[in-house]
Amino acid sequence: IKTIGVLTSGGDAPGMNAAIRAIVRKSLSNGIKVKGIKKGFNGLLNEEIVDMDARSVSDTIQRGGTVLYTARCTEFRTLEGQQKGAEICRKHGIDGLVVIGGDGSFAGAQKLSALGINTIGVPGTIDLDIACTDYTIGFDTAVNTAMEAIDKVRDTSTSHERCSIIEVMGRNAGYIALWCGIANGAEDILLPEKYNHDEQQLINNIINNRKKGKKHHIVINAEGIGHSEAMARRIEAATGIETRATILGHMQRGGSPTCRDRVYASIMGAYAADLLAQGKSNRVVGYKNGAYVDFDIDEALAMQKGINDYEFTVSRLLAM
Ligand code: F6P
């Protein structure tokens, strides 16, 4: 391997820049040239490819977003798109590629591997929904951003003795909601993996907590459940307690990455660069049980992950 490419794909995540920086600099130290591919697989198909050196990634480790930009690419789901992508890699002398993104992006990486481009995935998503790894780049920053925002909503919720429904991101996964639920001491957490849609039970809980003397009632609602505005209207009608909905939205994806995100992104990025230097392909980097590891992409995509039952049970108990 003489030259590799790096791209970010899917939703951006704080820490992606730290991963790019590590991939560039570790590859250079391995004697391998690096090209940056802009705007994910879209940019590959449009040949938005630039040479990168150590200075290209100066002053980026502390920045949110991705300096390579990102996109979701429908054309790359087709065989024609994948073949075109592999040909463009060959045309530019790219014989290895690191894809930083989520499961969808790894599916693209898997196809490129099958077409002869050595490809490695690095888990970058705020959702934490990649089964082969305990950690995904961006989760820590996102969950801290959400936690701080929820603390602020809680202040005003208490002052007005309201119920507040706060919707957090996570697509179909409830990890951000669970972690905020524990960290913010939320009275209720609605997770796609756990919520039985028994709204009467939720309403009873809100009324009982008011009787117990609680001044606010924070419901953290995962994006996978959604419909927070309508839920707030129904709860207010049923309980007589003023209820407001706040959807945190894309602010959760921005901001300077936390120390944890910078460190894990740096090590995972370097690890991916080393896998390519060793001639490996079709692998995903992960952090599992305290160690940096890598898995075959096919195996990684087949793995299942769920909410930790003990964490969920304790979170409910502590909200008494
Ligand atoms: O995967 C990250 C994520 O922020 C999810 O939590 C959310 O469902 C989705 O991306 C939002 O995507 P978009 O930026 O396209 O609105």
UniProtKB/TrEMBL annotation:
<dbReference type="InterPro" id="IPR015912">
    <property type="entry name" value="Phosphofructokinase_CS"/>
</dbReference>
<feature type="binding site">
    <location>
        <position position="103"/>
    </location>
    <ligand>
        <name>Mg(2+)</name>
    </ligand>
</feature>
<dbReference type="GO" id="GO:0005945">
    <property type="term" value="C:6-phosphofructokinase complex"/>
</dbReference>
<dbReference type="GO" id="GO:0006002">
    <property type="term" value="P:fructose 6-phosphate metabolic process"/>
</dbReference>
<dbReference type="Pfam" id="PF00365">
    <property type="entry name" value="PFK"/>
</dbReference>
<dbReference type="GO" id="GO:0030388">
    <property type="term" value="P:fructose 1,6-bisphosphate metabolic process"/>
</dbReference>
<comment type="subunit">
    <text>Homotetramer.</text>
</comment>
<keyword id="KW-0324">Glycolysis</keyword>
<feature type="binding site" description="in other chain">
    <location>
        <position position="212"/>
    </location>
    <ligand>
        <name>ADP</name>
    </ligand>
</feature>
<feature type="domain" description="Phosphofructokinase">
    <location>
        <begin position="4"/>
        <end position="276"/>
    </location>
</feature>
<comment type="pathway">
    <text>Carbohydrate degradation; glycolysis; D-glyceraldehyde 3-phosphate and glycerone phosphate from D-glucose: step 3/4.</text>
</comment>
<dbReference type="InterPro" id="IPR035966">
    <property type="entry name" value="PKF_sf"/>
</dbReference>
<keyword id="KW-0547">Nucleotide-binding</keyword>
<dbReference type="GO" id="GO:0048029">
    <property type="term" value="F:monosaccharide binding"/>
</dbReference>
<feature type="binding site">
    <location>
        <position position="162"/>
    </location>
    <ligand>
        <name>substrate</name>
    </ligand>
</feature>
<feature type="binding site">
    <location>
        <begin position="72"/>
        <end position="73"/>
    </location>
    <ligand>
        <name>ATP</name>
    </ligand>
</feature>
<feature type="binding site">
    <location>
        <position position="244"/>
    </location>
    <ligand>
        <name>substrate</name>
    </ligand>
</feature>
<dbReference type="InterPro" id="IPR012003">
    <property type="entry name" value="ATP_PFK_prok-type"/>
</dbReference>
<feature type="binding site" description="in other chain">
    <location>
        <position position="154"/>
    </location>
    <ligand>
        <name>ADP</name>
    </ligand>
</feature>
<feature type="binding site" description="in other chain">
    <location>
        <begin position="169"/>
        <end position="171"/>
    </location>
    <ligand>
        <name>substrate</name>
    </ligand>
</feature>
<dbReference type="GO" id="GO:0003872">
    <property type="term" value="F:6-phosphofructokinase activity"/>
</dbReference>
<feature type="binding site" description="in other chain">
    <location>
        <position position="223"/>
    </location>
    <ligand>
        <name>substrate</name>
    </ligand>
</feature>
<keyword id="KW-0067">ATP-binding</keyword>
<dbReference type="GO" id="GO:0005524">
    <property type="term" value="F:ATP binding"/>
</dbReference>
<keyword id="KW-0479">Metal-binding</keyword>
<dbReference type="GO" id="GO:0042802">
    <property type="term" value="F:identical protein binding"/>
</dbReference>
<dbReference type="InterPro" id="IPR022953">
    <property type="entry name" value="ATP_PFK"/>
</dbReference>
<comment type="function">
    <text>Catalyzes the phosphorylation of D-fructose 6-phosphate to fructose 1,6-bisphosphate by ATP, the first committing step of glycolysis.</text>
</comment>
<feature type="binding site" description="in other chain">
    <location>
        <begin position="214"/>
        <end position="216"/>
    </location>
    <ligand>
        <name>ADP</name>
    </ligand>
</feature>
<feature type="active site" description="Proton acceptor">
    <location>
        <position position="127"/>
    </location>
</feature>
<dbReference type="InterPro" id="IPR000023">
    <property type="entry name" value="Phosphofructokinase_dom"/>
</dbReference>
<comment type="similarity">
    <text>Belongs to the phosphofructokinase type A (PFKA) family. ATP-dependent PFK group I subfamily. Prokaryotic clade 'B1' sub-subfamily.</text>
</comment>
<feature type="binding site">
    <location>
        <begin position="102"/>
        <end position="105"/>
    </location>
    <ligand>
        <name>ATP</name>
    </ligand>
</feature>
<dbReference type="GO" id="GO:0016208">
    <property type="term" value="F:AMP binding"/>
</dbReference>
<keyword id="KW-0808">Transferase</keyword>
<feature type="binding site" description="in other chain">
    <location>
        <begin position="125"/>
        <end position="127"/>
    </location>
    <ligand>
        <name>substrate</name>
    </ligand>
</feature>
<keyword id="KW-0418">Kinase</keyword>
<feature type="binding site" description="in other chain">
    <location>
        <begin position="185"/>
        <end position="187"/>
    </location>
    <ligand>
        <name>ADP</name>
    </ligand>
</feature>
<protein>
    <recommendedName>
        <fullName>ATP-dependent 6-phosphofructokinase</fullName>
        <ecNumber>2.7.1.11</ecNumber>
    </recommendedName>
</protein>
<dbReference type="GO" id="GO:0061621">
    <property type="term" value="P:canonical glycolysis"/>
</dbReference>
<dbReference type="GO" id="GO:0070095">
    <property type="term" value="F:fructose-6-phosphate binding"/>
</dbReference>
<keyword id="KW-0963">Cytoplasm</keyword>
